[in-house]
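Q: Sequence in, structure out?
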Amino acid sequence: MAAPQQILFGFHAVSVRLKTAPASVLEVYVDATRRDARMQQFLARAGQAGARVIEADAARLARLAGSAGHQGVAARVQALAPARSLDDLLDALQEPPLVLLLDGITDPHNLGACLRVADGAGAHAVIAPKDHAAGISATVAKVASGAAETVPYFMVTNLARTLGELQERGLQVTGAAGEATLTLYEADLRGPSALVLGAEGAGMRRLTRERCDQLVRIPMQGAVESLNVSVAAGVCLYEARRQRGAGVS
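A: Exactly. Output:
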């Protein structure tokens, strides 16, 4: 049976697929009116990958992408094989695991931004529940700027149970909560770590919170009370990376 097809759009998302899995790119559609340097660089990359390039107008690109934010680029691709199981991924790691768990993140823009941050910080996986969470879509891939292709994203049936399984593997589960007494910078994140963030405003669900080994807060110096979840994910993941590289003062 042929692999299912999907649409990617935006320079970053399509460029990463051309780089990492060029054989899966069936057709690339580009805005026939764009002749700027960025488009020329993209066309050169597509040519190097041997992709079939089709000129299209803005209306066709918008129909393909399901969005006007396509930047003049879309691609019809074969869906890649899903990431191997979470257990297999963790078993194969050569360093202490660093994973991000998202509890109740339903906005595809937030998920895409979290995947982009996770890729930048070198997180090994992002995990979310199957219910009440965004899945990978063209919008997620666009916002993730290629990270949806590189960061394993696992959707699990029971997030609390998965946290327990990670704890059995020796991962310390750290949840972000505004009311926590311990700050992020006081926590020791050098070992195997699972960082848990809930939706902005609602936060983590009760069962998720109860599974955490510790709760931490990101110190807020200004008038706002919380950060967007993707920003909070970046702060937490990069602090874990900083500690691994420099130790805790």
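The beta strands are 5-9, 25-31, 53-56, 73-78, 98-103, 125-129, 153-156, 172-176, 193-198, 214-216.
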